[in-house]
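call fold(seq) -> tokens
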Amino acid sequence: MGNSTDTTATAGGESFADLFEQSIQVADVGEVVKGEVIAVGKDYVLVDIGDKSEGEIDITEFRNEEGEISVKVGDTFEVFVEKREPEGGIKLSRERAIGIKVWEEIARIQEADETISGRIDSRVKGGLSVDIGVPAFLPYSQIDLRPVRDLDALIGDTFEFKILKYNRRRNNVVISRRAIMEAERAHLREEMKGTLEEGQVLTGSVTNITDYGVFVDLGGMDGLCHITDLSWGRVSHPSKMFKVGDEIQVKVLKYDQENDKVSLGVKQLKSDPWETILQRYPVGAKVPGKVVSITDYGAFVELEEGVEGLVHISEMSWSKKSRHPSKIVTVSDEVEVVVLNVDPEAKRISLGMKQLQPNPWDMVAENYPAGSIIEGKVKNITDFGIFIGIEEGIDGLIHVSDLSWTERIKHPGEKYAKGETIQAVVLKIDKENERFSLGIKQLQPDPWEAAVEKYAIGTKLTGKITNVTEFGVFVELEEGIEGLIHVSELSKEKVETPVGLYNVGDELEARVINVSARDRKIGLSIKALSGESEEARVEEYKQKQAKSGPSTLGDLLKEELNREKEGA
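ret:
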């Protein structure tokens, strides 16, 4: 009988050699076992897992971000058996072993509704990539309770996360940080409901800014601070005062427990500045301020936070020249003003700027006494007169009636031009109403004053007809002086109308029967020329007029004729 070999088959068909080899194998492919590093080579790390041969792990699995090898002989850790090589070697993987354990932990954590720690690695489409042992996806909506403006600032930070769902086969995990924050917030909200009271002063974080106010996170619930409660002063937009993330102190103004609404205030942390406004800003006080707004009718000046006053356009300059406030001041200008009036109830302060400058009208009466002659340029021409520039902020008016003693000027523009330099006499200065009256005709004596002597009653003269009307004929005696021959003084015979009997340009001889410098009128008569006896009667009536007053010679003659008729 021959010797048996080591290949003798067993009852099951396997050789004893196969059975021996299997008896010293301790790990199956796909299994996670514990191993110890026994050597670190250039390309592989040798790990003893108690099997018949050592396993190899690629060296790249131990290279850190800086490229350094972070493994040494004696290190122990779990490894994953990837495959057995035909020649007897074993291919191992530490990363896959870690991954398997992570997936097991992920499953356990989700089942137990616990949290897992993770580090935010990078931004990806739709959210962030987080390392929780395996790459996990954190959607934008699950990052925070509110939108995060700067996602890049979160990269590298470590947080706790809830596992929303996972798929090991697809290597997919979705996590949430918001779920944890919502749970914490709900807990704090319940605690706050029992302690929140009106009048409390709390510290919160600005979470949102709108046109109408600021939302503040109080640590368990949000409150709204309306724009009108941000400051006692003007607030153009809440974003001018705060930005998202600011830590601010607020006062609870109202708490609606039923609807969980909290109204907050910032300005209420300070007293209302208008309560003591009269003591701090008495009328007449000179105070500094800053221009914060400009309108067509003036400029608003901030004296302090919550206190603004209006400088009306009429109080900005002594000049009457129409100028827009923006031509005098600009927003943000630092100015000094005078308090003119304070109304605490209406929260209004009237301010002035011109009061800090000398009033040019205070010196006008001294510099330009009545009767003095000035020279200036025509600045403006209107239908009622012309304005002459005297000095900065002061113009003088020459009324159309003061342009000439004798000329009939329909419009000053007929005789004068803008920019023309002329002389005038100071007639009157009204400081209270800021009026400066001038005259040109006063530069010459009034010709009517001389007319009383030159055209004395009874004087016989010749003139040229300038106008013929239904009631009489006008005769020019000299330039600017006319006399009127009334229709009743044209002839002893009754004349219905002179129209058609006399023509403009004809010369007439007449006698003066009335003259008045005050009324600027000279009465003439052709009828008074007839006979020497008439001349004697004229002299008689002149004497009567001197005694009886301003009656006209024509009236006296009529009275005398009536008496003669009555005597007859």
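The longest helix spans residues 94-112.
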